[in-house]
Amino acid sequence: MEKPFRLTFSNGREAPAIRPSVPTELSVALNQMGLQPSRPILVVVGGASQISEAEFLRIQQLFIKVLAPIAEKLGAYVVDGGTDAGVMQLMGMARSQIAGTFPLIGVAPEGKVALPNQLTSFEDSTPLEPHHTHFVLIPGNEWGDESPWIVHVATVLANGSPSVTVLLNGGEVTFKDAFQSVIAGRLVIVIAGSGRTADKIADALDGRGTDDRAIELADSGLVRDINLEDGFAHLAQAIEELLSAEN
Question: What is the pTM of this model?
């Protein structure tokens, strides 16, 4: 198994990274990066597209005022897709804005991302988000290849501690992310009112669903929704209680 290596971003920040070839390598590899198991885990999936500027700003505040502060308060690990786009970018920026110290682990298919200071990259490659603290670069050349690996990383690091997936907005890959969490037995909190996939699932939970995948997720018993219109306090309380729960 390849040893961890360091990535250096243009802003001067550095982050360790690993290239596991199979999920069974994760326990040792994550430990080699200094990540200890049995911590509360917050998984963040989805996107931030096809919404108005006002809606985007509200979602941005959700990360700054709720998700990042909860992770900091509980000493939780946050796991997401690691790229400099969508909810991953918002998570990285929120950690920076609150001067957070919690580990932020990005899991991405190496064939789809541009590593910092890389001389060559694929035309459609996406940069990694520079405020993440650790990266897991998994084998894959398509978006969605990372979905089961995000779940594996979260499960290994939780090691029986509370964990929850928060789903905002999102497209096709977000459905795959949600199903992977459900298969692993991890509760998915859907942020209703954030658009696209999140709202399709929320509609299914309310009995108004028309998307078969959303209906299947709603019927799993492992998905619940919280509406942005209800304010941040309700969401913060729900997530904090879930991540503080005794097993």
Answer: 0.95
Q: Which amino acid is at 160?
A: G
Rg for the chain (alpha carbons), in Å? 17
- The crossing angle, in degrees rounded to 10, of helices 172-183 and 147-158 is 40
Of 84, 92, 170, 87, give the one whose Cα is nearest residue 125.
84
Q: In what order do the strands lie in the sheet with 5-8?
A: 5-8, 14-18, 134-138, 104-109, 77-80, 41-46, 163-168, 188-192, 223-227
Are the C-beta atoms of residues 45 and 174 closer than 8 Å to each other?
Answer: yes
Residue 137 tokens, joined: 């670069």
Q: What is the pLDDT along the chain (247 residues), one digit of tens a residue?
A: 789 999 999 888 999 999 999 999 999 999 999 999 999 999 999 998 877 787 888 899 999 999 999 999 999 999 999 999 999 999 999 999 999 999 999 999 999 999 987 655 556 789 999 999 999 999 999 999 999 999 999 999 999 999 999 999 999 999 999 999 999 999 999 999 999 999 999 999 999 999 999 999 999 999 999 998 888 998 999 999 999 986 5
Place of tokens 């994550």: 30
Q: Which domains occur in the chain, in start order?
A: 5-23+39-244 (3.40.50.450)
